[in-house]
Amino acid sequence: MNNVFMPQEYRPRPSGAELDGAHSPQAMEYLNSSLFSNGLSNHFTLCIGPKSDMVIQTIERQLDKVSTIITLYLEEMYQTWSWYCRNGTINFVIKTGFQRCQSIVPKKIYFRSAYSDSNSIHANKLYDFVNLLNIYRGEILCHPIEHQLNNSKMLQAALTIIPASLHSKKVKCPTSYIIKSVKNFNQLNLKNLVVKSLSGMRSDVVDKEIFQQWNQSAVNHLPVLFQEKISGYDVRVHSLNNKFYAKRVYQNKRSRTYRYNITKSLLVDYTLLDDIEKFCTAVLKSESLNLAGIDFKVDDENNYFCFEINPGPGWSAYYKNDGFKKNEFVYDLIEYLSHG
C-alpha cells in the first residue's frame, strides 16, 4: 500500500484480537444444536472473544469461585459451543463433558472485538456471530454497533466530545486537521502537530521527528489526520455502570509513540475532578455506553484534552498485575457480570 502515508509498522494490529487458526480444534465436527431443547437457565453471563485476548484471560483468572460467568472462545464456535434461535430466543449450546452439553439463555453477553482475514477459516464464524448479536434481546457490553462513532475520530469529536466540552470548564478537544494534498501538508506548522489514525484502525501517535521521514506524496491519495501536540501527562478513565476508575500514566520516554506504550509505563490511581466526571457522564450518555475507556492528556495549565471514547476498552493493560480483591475495577466488573 504505497499510497498510504502512515507505514504499516506504525499501524499495529490490536494484540490478542486476531482469530488464529492455530487455536482451532483439528477435528471440524460441528455441534448439532438442533438436538437440544430450549435453554432453561437464564442467570449466566457469557464472556465471548478471541482466545489470546488479555481481557478474556484476566476474567478467566477470577472465576474459581464464580459459577455464573462462562468464557467462550470465538475460535471454538461450532466445536465446543454453538447457538440456535427458537421462538425468537437465542439459545447457546455449550459442551460440558464427553457427549454432554448444556443449553442456556444468557442474561447478558460481554463481547470482545476480534478480526479475521477474509481467507481465514474463522471469517464466516465471526460474521455469523456479529450478526447474531444484532438480534440478541439481552444486555451486551461492548456491542459492535457501539463502535460506529469511534470508527471515525472526527465524527466522534463533532457529535460527542465537542458538545460535552462546551459545558465543561476544564475539558477541551485538540485542534485537528484533515489533510489531503501535499500543498496543504506544506502549509501546516508541523512542529506542533502529531499524526494519528483517522478511523477506528489502531495506530501509533508520532510527531514531526518521525512522520517527516515518510512518503509525503502519499498525502495526495488518502486524507490524513494531523492533531495539535499537547504537552503533559496521560489519564485513562474507565467507566462501568456509571462509576469511574482512573489511572495516571507516567510515560516511558524511550517509547517511539508520542502518547504512551502502556506495557512500559507506570500506572497510578488518579482522582478525577467533579468537572471531569460530569464530562465523562455526558459523553457516555450521548453514546449510550455502560462500559468504556476515555483518553485524556492533561497540560501544564490543568486543561484536559479528550482524544476519544473507546467503547471496547482493553482494560487488562491497566489492571493485569492486580489481584481480584485488591483491584476495585476488576472486582466491580466481575460483580456486575455475575449479578447485574
Mean pLDDT across all amino acids:
86
User: What is the CA–CA distance across the termini?
Assistant: 46 Å
Number of domains: 3
Largest sheet: 6 strands, mixed
Number of strands: 17
Structural class: alpha+beta
Give me the Rg, rounded.
Answer: 22 Å
Shape: globular
- Helices and strands, in N-to-C order? EHEEEEEHEHEEHEEHEEEEHEEHH
Q: What is the top-level CATH class of the largest domain?
A: Alpha Beta
Q: What portion of the residues fall into strands of 2 or more residues?
A: 25-35%
Which fold does the CATH topology of the largest domain refer to? Rossmann fold
Under the CATH scheme, the architecture of the largest domain is 3-Layer(aba) Sandwich
Helix tally? 8
| Low-confidence segments | none
| Helix percentage range | 10-25%
Strand line-up across the major sheet: 8-17-16-13-14-15
Descriptive overview:
The chain has 340 residues and is α+β, with helices and mostly antiparallel strands. It has 3 domains: 21-142, Rossmann fold (3-Layer(aba) Sandwich), CATH 3.40.50; 145-174 and 230-311, ATP-grasp fold, B domain (D-amino Acid Aminotransferase, Chain A, domain 1); 175-229. Helix content is 21%, strand content 26%. It has 8 helices and 17 strands. The strands form 4 sheets. A 6-stranded mixed sheet has the order 8-17-16-13-14-15. Strands 2-1-6-7 form a 4-stranded parallel sheet. It has a 4-stranded antiparallel sheet with strand order 9-12-10-11. A hairpin with a 2-residue loop joins strand 4 (89-97) and strand 5 (100-104). Helix 3 (153-165) crosses helix 6. The longest helix has 14 residues, at 274-287. The mean pLDDT is 86.
